[in-house]
Design goal:
alpha+beta; five-stranded mixed β-sheet; two-stranded antiparallel sheet; about 45% helix; zinc-finger; Znf_MYND; MYND-type domain-containing protein
Length: about 350
């Protein structure tokens, strides 16, 4: 659709439509924009928009008299600017696509178009990728041998119903997350202090709203969520829950776990790997940050991309965070994507 010029068509139609007059009917330009936005992080979508000159058109838009139109124009413009930073400004930045949690920093990653032939994908499950045979063997011995068979069954099911995400899509998610994390997140020590203060406020609210004597069903049947070390947290980029808006928020892991109990209690084959990521972060709090990106696959499924990021306080501005390891899982929308942390 982007190659066919839909952004230009929508742009030209906006001055003639007021959402307050027409609502959001099926087939409206508003619905088209809301539908397009969650997929505009993809490098192919950005390339199509750039080729047609849509970047210049949206950046140089005239002031709209309608507030809704102005808001959507600003959102599309912001999305294209973020894509430019991820795919043009940082085109030569090497980003790791390795799933090994012990991936050596000195091995770096891959430039934008140098990943396909050098990445090694597990042929059993197609769910994890590695930069080398050494990383593949190391991850097999520590984690992947325990999860590969189950992930392989998931791969065959998702391949059959066409819900399997390509390596290229996962590459775009990793690159986009690393770029936008560097754009929007400040120094790690400051972030940790901020989250700790918010966590204490959240705990206070929880205590105030919890009955002093829980009923029998709560005490006997409800499973207690796992507890994490104080100061452990997760940064979430949500490209799903909030429609056409990209939201970045950071939560303590205790709070996140309380809201996303289906993941921690549902027996996901990814749980051992997720717990290892958490342990790595808790043991290296001054240099490791956990990031989760939520991306729409289709109306029924959401992709969750988890990154282990390393913070370098001596790095250049907007280049202080880099990916160490990553993996992507797909879940039904109702299972996790509607977890909304206020």
């Amino acid at each position: 659709m982007l190659e066919g010029g839909i952004l230009k068509c929508l742009y030209l139609c906006l001055p003639h439509v007021n959402r307050g007059d027409i609502g959001l009917p099926s087939g409206s330009i508003w619905q088209a924009l809301v539908f397009l936005q969650p997929f505009m992080y993809l490098s192919q979508a950005y390339a199509a928009a750039a080729l047609r000159g849509d970047l210049v058109m949206w950046a140089g838009r005239a002031k709209r008299t309608d507030g809704d139109a102005e808001g959507i124009c600003s959102t599309i413009d912001a999305a294209l600017n973020r894509d430019y930073f991820a795919y043009v400004t940082r085109q030569k930045v090497k980003v790791s696509m390795c799933s090994n949690l012990k991936h050596p920093v000195e091995r770096g990653g891959h430039e934008l178009d140098e990943y396909y032939h050098s990445l090694k994908t597990c042929t059993g499950c197609h769910a994890v990728t590695y930069c080398s045979h050494e990383c593949q063997k190391e991850d097999w011995d520590s984690l992947h041998s325990k999860e590969c068979s189950v992930l392989g069954m998931e791969y065959r099911v998702q391949k059959y119903d066409k819900s399997w995400s390509s390596v290229r899509t996962r590459r775009d998610q990793v690159r986009w997350l690393e770029a936008n994390l560097n754009l929007s997140v400040g120094p790690l020590p400051e972030l940790r202090r901020e989250i700790w203060e918010k966590f204490l406020q959240w705990k206070t609210r929880c205590k105030a709203s919890t009955p002093s004597t829980p009923g029998p069903s709560t005490a006997t049947t409800r499973r207690q969520p796992p507890k994490f070390r104080p100061g452990s947290f997760l940064t979430v980029f949500d490209y799903v829950t909030n429609g056409y808006l990209s939201i970045e928020r950071t939560y303590s892991l205790d709070r996140y776990c309380a809201e996303a109990s289906s993941l921690f209690e549902g027996g996901s084959p990814w749980m051992p790997r997720i717990r290892e990521c958490i342990s790595l972060m808790e043991d290296n709090r001054d240099e490791i940050l956990l990031v989760e990106g939520r991306f729409r696959f289709d109306a029924e499924r959401t992709m969750f991309t988890t990154l282990v990021m390393r913070y370098n306080p001596d790095g250049q501005e907007q280049y202080k965070y880099s990916v160490v390891s990553s993996f992507t899982r797909t879940s039904p929308v109702k299972a996790e994507a509607r977890v909304c942390l206020p």
